[in-house]
Amino acid sequence: LQDANTLVSKPDDLVMILQHVRKAFPYVERVTSYARSQSIARISDENMARLAEAGLNRIHIGMESAADKVLEFVKKGVDKQTHILAGQKVKRAGIELSEYFMPGLGGKALSRENALETADALNQIDADFIRIRTLAIPEVIELHRDVEAGNFKPLGDKQKAEELLLFLEHLHGISSVVKSDHILNLFQEVEGTFPQDKEQMTAPIRTFIAMEAEEQM
């Protein structure tokens, strides 16, 4: 349903749209929407269940981080508890959930917090998918000006690897599928299902961190 925060629409309107999609395209197996946590948090459980019944069966949420200090710095407009509330609401409705984590978003100052707080939130949500989206800083965004001003110190590749490893090590009690499905990610092979593939996912990161700098390059 478009490439934006479709769930900002009124539930009645979305139900009507979903019913029309199902009628017009009865062979469609999946209807997906992007959504913001704060939009979902405002929707009642009853209306979320109605959306699921009408055919919305996957939602992608750009969590990026669940560390309140990081969220405040990047002006995300949401806090950790709202991320958790929204994720749990989607799961209760029986809708598949993809959550995105962004290694590096806290910079050097908040790297550890970014990993640990996000892992803690995702442990409470148990999303169907956790998708890795490593931070990139193009010149046109405000964060680039923070880098130039010395207010944000980006992580190097080794530090990003260490943050990703810390994040994965602190995921527990979940059955999420981890996907490293983006070209910006250093480790395309960090994919698998919790808990059984945890060692398999962390092994290439450990190998990389143990390498000499020239070998890492």
Q: What secondary-structure arrangement, pairings included, does this model have?
A:
Layout: H1 11-24, E1 32-35, H2 37-41, H3 45-54, E2 58-64, H4 68-73, H5 80-92, E3 96-101, H6 111-125, E4 129-132, H7 142-149, H8 157-169, E5 177-179, E6 192-193, H9 198-210, H10 213-216
Parallel strand pairs: 1-2, 2-3, 3-4, 4-5
Antiparallel strand pairs: 5-6
Helix pairs in contact: 1-3, 5-6, 6-8, 8-9
Question: How does this structure look, described?
Answer:
Strands 1-2-3-4-5-6 form a six-stranded mixed beta sheet. The termini are far apart. Helix 1 packs parallel to helix 3 (45-54) and helix 5 packs parallel to helix 6. The relative contact order is 0.11. It is built from ten helices and six strands. The chain has helices spanning 11-24, 37-41, 45-54, 68-73, 80-92, 111-125, 142-149, 157-169, 198-210, 213-216; strands at 32-35, 58-64, 96-101, 129-132, 177-179, 192-193. Helix 6 links the parallel strand 3 and strand 4 (129-132). It is α/β, with parallel strands linked by helices.
Helix content: 40-55%
Please give the radius of gyration in angstroms. 18 Å
Coarse morphology: globular
In oligomeric terms, what are we looking at? single chain
Question: Beta-strand percentage?
Answer: 5-15%
Number of helices: 10
How many strands in all? Answer: 6
- N-to-C order of helices and strands: HEHHEHHEHEHHEEHH
| Strand order, largest beta sheet | 1-2-3-4-5-6
Structural class, please?
Answer: alpha/beta
> How far apart are the first and last residues' alpha carbons, in Å?
40 Å
Give the biggest beta sheet.
6 strands, mixed
* Residue-averaged pLDDT: 96
Low-confidence stretches: none
